[in-house]
Write a structure and sequence with these properties.
500 residues; mainly alpha; two-stranded antiparallel sheet; 19 helices; 2 strands; 35% helix; disordered N terminus; DNA-binding
DNA sequence: GCTCCTTTGAAGTAG
DNA sequence: CTACTTCAAAGGAGC
């Protein structure tokens, strides 16, 4: 179904996005997955500490009132269990425990570490980059859009009685991969998942060995180990109201809060804990590209010895465009399932719920300087530069356009850092030039070669989106201005280059 | 310690 | 309906 350019077919994707970079000839390098770098080791090391530290936080337990009540049998349980848990942490470090079971059978216990070669398991670290299980895994193998550290902890966590989940209607020890069984779907809110979706029988979301947040799937995860879901952290920050722990639910400020939990495993004064736990945030489901990034990031890091995410993401963006439709389709499909599952877990959730939580300050700043035309973004727009790839020389990584500030009254045309004019987008950061052998065709402004675009556009079309059987979101009535319109109808993506 | 950068896609907002 | 904005991940850089 070649949809590109057909207008009608390119429903959920912007047509333009496919035009941005078309590094052709760039083939997915079959990179030897052998890079277990020192960095990994370092991460693992630190994770050893973090894991034991980060698994017992009773703080998060407060998120769920019921959980709070239970957990508030104060930290007694926690403290009593701490030694056990620490021991658990050590157990986690037994590679054999995870390694053997490759992904095939993983479902929810075996977590391939995307950042380890061969999808080997990394039970050691709770540091996301090390544990996220997408690397080396077949894209259709449930990617883990969310990290799952706390589940891995929880998998053995003795902090709470095993029956806690039962009380919450989660504990279904006898179930294995029967997802519907594990998914106490929100009452009345959940439509059926179409049979075509494989995630019921297929472990869609493998559990990373260690992680703070958890893929929803873990909630489904079977009997793999339900005790894992009894982890206090889960009860607090990652527990769905139905009792389903979900990686998408994180403390309101997300990462930082998670780090906070990791660093503050000691019981804390009640008020503070409650305060933090009051605002769990359900994160957005990851889109196809995000899933791809999660899987490939480690590769790029290993190949380029890069660490800066911005540069890595640039590379990944190019590689994404270089993917064949077929390959992309895998991720679109995963993303679709991801969204569907998310929708089922959180029927009433809206992306709008998270608006303002991440960039509140930024937006506040923008409001303050709303009329300031010197921002790089505005400068780019004003002069027809691509918001994503162009920059106004000194504007790059600057908050203000230097030329504007210098009194020219406007942002200059693209200039290099030394002020000389440039006609084309500036050279990529050094990082982008890394490992030419690894990215042979990775060049800026690589000529588009639509050859592989002959394949059908993998991007989802409305028909593929959650069927009408899906839950109608409360609060998202038809009159809602932002109600999901047919993305297909809006090929003009926000990425549409301002002037390209 | 917070924010930015950087990517694409999904979804929300505004006109 | 269109255009724009925000957020999702990630981690180094910069303030």
């Amino acid at each position: 179904m070649p949809q590109l350019g057909s207008g009608g077919g390119d429903d959920l994707g912007a047509t333009d996005e496919m035009l941005a970079f078309k590094d052709e000839g760039e083939q997915e390098e079959k990179i030897p997955e052998n890079a277990f770098t020192e960095r990994d080791l370092a991460d693992l090391k630190s994770s050893l500490v973090n894991e034991s530290e980060g698994s017992g936080s009773p703080a998060a337990a407060a998120a769920d009132p019921e959980a709070l009540r239970r957990v508030q049998d104060p930290q007694r349980v926690y403290q009593e269990k701490l030694p056990d848990h620490m021991d658990d942490g050590m157990k986690h470090q037994d590679p054999g425990m995870y390694k053997g079971s490759a992904y095939s059978g993983y479902p929810f216990l075996m977590l391939s570490d995307p950042y380890l070669p061969n999808g080997s398991m990394s039970p050691l670290s709770n540091k996301v980059p090390v544990v996220q299980p997408s690397h080396g895994v077949h894209p259709l193998t449930p990617l883990i859009p969310y990290s799952n550290d706390h589940f891995s902890h929880g998998s053995h966590s003795p902090h709470l009685p095993a029956d806690i989940n039962q009380k919450q209607g989660v504990h279904r020890p006898s179930q294995t991969s029967d997802i519907p069984g594990f998914y106490p779907l929100p009452p009345g809110g959940v439509g059926q998942i179409t049979p075509s979706m494989g995630w019921q029988s297929q472990s869609v979301y493998p559990l990373p060995s260690c992680g703070f947040r958890q893929p929803y799937s873990s909630a489904l995860s079977a009997g793999a180990s339900f005790s894992r879901f009894t982890h206090p952290l889960m009860l607090g920050s990652g527990m769905h109201t139905t009792g389903i722990p979900h990686p998408a639910i994180v403390p309101h400020s997300g990462k930082q809060d998670m780090e906070h939990y990791d660093r503050n495993m000691k019981p804390q004064p009640e008020p503070k804990r409650e305060k933090e736990a009051k605002k769990p945030t359900i994160k957005k489901p990851l889109n196809a590209f995000m899933l791809y990034m999660k899987e490939m990031r480690a590769k790029v890091i290993a190949e380029c010895t890069l660490k800066e995410s911005a540069a890595i993401n640039q590379i990944l963006g190019r590689r994404w465009h270089a993917l064949s439709r077929e390959e992309q389709a895998k991720y679109y499909e995963l993303a679709r399932k991801e969204r569907q599952l998310h929708m089922q877990l959180y029927p009433g959730w809206s992306a709008r719920d998270n608006y303002g939580k991440k960039k509140r300050r930024t937006r506040e700043k923008q409001q303050d300087s709303n009329s300031d035309p010197a921002s790089p973004k505005k400068c780019r727009a004003r002069f027809g530069l691509n918001q994503q790839t162009d920059w106004c020389g000194p504007c790059r990584r600057k908050k203000k356009c230097i030329r504007y500030l210098q009194g020219e009254g406007r942002c200059a045309s693209p200039v290099s850092s030394d002020g000389s004019a440039i006609d084309s987008p500036p050279s990529p950061p050094d990082a982008l030039r890394c490992l030419p052998s690894a990215f042979p065709s990775e060049q800026l402004a690589a000529p588009a070669d639509p050859a592989h675009r002959d394949q059908p556009d993998p991007r989802p079309v409305p028909a593929q989106l959650p069927p009408a059987s899906g839950p109608s979101r409360p609060g998202s009535g038809p009159s809602r201005p932002g109600s999901r319109r047919s993305a297909a109808a809006s090929p003009a993506h926000s990425r549409a280059p301002a002037g390209t």
